[in-house]
Amino acid sequence: EVYFKNLSKQKQKEVMEKNGNNHKLRVCVATCNRADYSKLAPIMFGIKAEPQCFELDVVVLGSHLIDDYGNTYRMIEQDDFDIHTRLHTIVRGEDEAAMVESVGLALVKLPDVLNRLKPDIMIVHGDRFDALALATSAALMNIRILHIEGGEVSGTIDDSIRHAITKLAHYHVCCTRSAEQHLIAMCEDHDRILLAGCPSYDKLLSAKNKDYMSIIRMWLGEDVKTRDYIVALQHPVTTDIKHSIKMFELTLDALISFNKRTLVLFPNVDAGSKEMVRVMRKKGIEHHPNFRAVKHVPFDQFIQLVAHAGCMIGNSSCGVREVGAFGTPVINLGTRQTGRETGENVLHVRDADTQDKILHALQLQFGKQYPCSKIYGDGNAVPRILKFLKSIDLKEPLQKKFCFPPVKDNISQDIDHILETQSALAVDLGGTNLRVAIVSMKGEIVKKYTQLNPKTYEDRLALILKMCVEAASEAVNVNCRILGVGISTGGRVNPREGIVLHSTKLIQEWSSVDLRTPISDALHLPVWVDNDGNCAALAERKFGHGKGIENFVTLITGTGIGGGIVHQHELIHGSSFCAAELGHIVVSLDGPECLCGSQGCIEAYASGIALQREAKKLHDDDLLLVEGMSMKEEEIVSAAHLIQAAKLGNTKAESILRTAGTALGLGVVNILHTVNPSLVILSGVLANHYVNAVKDVINRQALSSVKTVDVVVSNLADPALLGAASLVLDYTTRRIY
Q1: Do 645 and 694 sit in the same domain of this protein?
Q2: Is 319 among the domain residues?
Q3: Is 504 annotated as a binding residue?
Q4: Residues 101-136: pLDDT tens digits?
Q5: Among 188, 353, 406, 689, fewest CB within 10 Å belongs to which?
Q6: Share of the chain above pLDDT 90, in %
Q7: Do 420 and 437 fall into the same domain?
Q8: Per-residue pLDDT tens over the stretch 589-627
Q9: What is the rounded distance in angstroms from the CA atom of residue 505 to the CA atom of residue 491?
């Protein structure tokens, strides 16, 4: 202990030498109301007692200067402090707007005062809106700030204001170990935090030795005994004014019913206080024989009143802080002090919604005596604070530093990694399978899920939701941030509303279906829906051959024939969302029947279904199988068997594929003559079998001006899923769609 005392003296000596041996620390103490003065007064007395070390400037503002709140600046004068500046900063109205205007008025007036005083440090207390104006002004004018009672937790807007002042302050004096830990958790410099205790406790712990009966009689009447009266102090809760007024009304009703002498203090200047005073007057409290209603009681006398009361009731911080030093029973009402550390003398009535509940609390608490609590101090706060002030080195940089906890290097801070991990949930509704995938910004399919597509609407939608939820959960594990859901589906789609207008015969019960709403509601993500052909075109535009191409067409050759048209970098939907139904371009007036009900469509010749139909005919006539081919009895004939037969020299199979390729080529020629793209992309499982036939037809049938068009096979492994992902990724990265 001797070592640390000597070390402290040596540090103070060094600081005095740095600051200049004759330099006194000029301290400005700004007080706004009766409550904060009770905490600041002991510090002011300590500063005044050491004129060789400090110069004290006192600034008074806020409700101190309002008659309705007791003109409490007079008690500062009675304590023999010179008030250097009085600032009228309260805008009357006692509502939320008045509080904001009061802060603004203080901010207008304070700069002139601070320029004139030029303090080395300003001491600010607590969590009032006036204090926020003080801290803001001082911080912006490069004046060091010492904040008293930071790090505590309570209810209402006070919490936010207190923590805001903490971030502006350079030095912190806290009252409890928990408050100190909160400040450290808020990244404040531990070397600039002092755990001193509450300054008011320096007075409290010696207060009970004084003559108290004369004080009790003066405020409550000659016939009142100790432990046989109540002190009530209740303030409005600014975040729920209506409820706090109702609670105050219930409190007064309970006190009237309890029938004990009660000292009621007027509420503070917060929004809602005017309405609370109206409630007092409506109930006749000022003229009731059991009540004494007062605007202000000097702190020394207030200490004696609560120390010998039978109970204190309300929501003032005094009840949960100072009163514990005397073991007086306290009833804390509502949420205003939620989070405060309290002694066992405090009974909380969080939801004081009935008079009976409050009355029952009074019956439980009144007249009890609890052990004294020293949670908030041991009576030696002021010496610690003065010592702390003396240790401040004014030559240290003014800019405060925050002590952030160590953070691991995060690769996601690299822009390339951010682009990689931004992802979409892609859904592909095919005629056979339902697939969901996590697709990254670079087009990588990170994870894919596949299930058979159910036959009914209800089962299908339930499965989509189930698979999407599973994929979204897995995205967290693979470090992907899901930006939205893109859905590719067959049929005609209104992408603006996310509705499937009507579907192909391959997907049953899939007309007039709103996909966006249920999926967005379930996943809380934006949802985009489009036709599978349009999605294939979007996939090419973002990840494939269409990247950077102004005008191109994509043709899907699979179970059906579909596609998408990109013109001037934009996808064409058409007036009724029927654009790019390329599979239903008619290439023959008397051709085979199509699933759409027409005849001679490209899809009736070149789709997988069409090839399967022709393969079955050959098989039924025993004309499909050639040497090198074999089929099991239960095996279903498919387009793959037709292609295999053609490769093995089956002339009839070759003829069918040639006709299919010609039909597709004629459709492409029609497209070239209609929209004149610079690129045609063939996609799907049959693309490689058709590409040469299409080029041949173009050379034979197309106008010379379009014969130079490039015809290529897509290099995308899964255009439907990538296109669904593109719906999300293009939009969320500010690409127009």
Answers
A1: yes
A2: yes
A3: yes
A4: 999 999 999 999 999 999 999 999 999 899 999 999
A5: 406
A6: 67
A7: yes
A8: 989 999 888 999 999 999 999 999 999 999 989 898 888
A9: 9
Q: For residue 664, which amino acid is it?
A: L
User: Looking at 493, 523, 543, which one is the last position of a domain?
Assistant: 543
The CATH number that applies at residue 566 is 3.30.420.40
Q: Is 76 left (phi over 0), alpha (psi -120 to 50) or beta?
A: alpha
Residue span of the structural domain in which 147 resides: 20-198+380-391
Look at the chain and report how many structural domains it folds into: 4
Residue 220 within a domain: yes
21-51 residues labelled b (16+ CB within 10 A) or e (exposed) = eeeebbbbbbbbbbbbbbbbbbbbbbbbeee
| 235 known member of a binding site | no
Q: How far is CA 160 from the centre of its chain?
A: 16
DSSP string, 141-166: TT-EEEEESTT---STTHHHHHHHHH
Query: Is 318 marked as binding a ligand?
Result: no
CB neighbourhood size of 628 (10 A): 10
Q: In the numeric block, which tokens belong to residue 722?
A: 């990538």
| 515 and 555 assigned to the same domain | no
- 415 band by pLDDT with thresholds 50, 70 and 90: low
Give pLDDT, residue 3.
44
CATH value at residue 335:
3.40.50.2000
Q: Distance (Å, rounded) from C-alpha 666 to C-alpha 561?
A: 14
Residue 396 lies in a domain: no
- Cα–Cα nearest to 99, from 128, 69, 59: 128
List the beta bridge partners of residue 489: 429, 531
Domain boundary pick from 491, 517, 543: 543
Q: What is the mean pLDDT of residues 403-408?
A: 74
Catalytic residue among 120, 130, 532, 718: 532
Rounded distance between C-alpha atoms, residue 12 and residue 388, angstroms? 9
Q: Is there a domain that residue 397 lies in?
A: no
Residue 356 has pLDDT above 60, yes or no: yes
Asked if residues 184 and 193 have their Cβ atoms less than 8 Å apart, the reply is yes
Residue 49, pLDDT above cutoff 70: yes
Per DSSP, 326 falls in state G
Is 654 known as a binding-site position?
no
Per the CB < 8 A criterion, the answer to whether 496 and 437 are in contact is no
Residue 408's pLDDT is 55
Q: Is 253 a catalytic residue?
A: no
Give which of 150, 97, 156, 100 is closest to 126, Cα–Cα: 150
Please tell me the number of Cα atoms within 13 Å of 688 on its side-chain side: 5
**Edge to edge, what strands does the sheet with 261-265 contain?**
291-294, 261-265, 229-233, 311-314, 330-333, 346-349
What gap in Å lies between CA 200 and CA 41, rounded to an integer?
A: 8
- The torsion angles phi and psi of 291, rounded to 5 degrees, stand at -120, 145
Q: What is the pLDDT of residues 193-226, one digit of tens each?
A: 999 999 998 888 776 556 889 999 999 999 999 9
| pLDDT more than 70, % of the chain | 93
User: Are residues 632 and 606 both part of a single domain?
Assistant: yes
Establish whether 596 is an annotated binding residue: yes
Residues 519 and 563 in one domain: no
Q: What is the pLDDT of residue 491?
A: 85
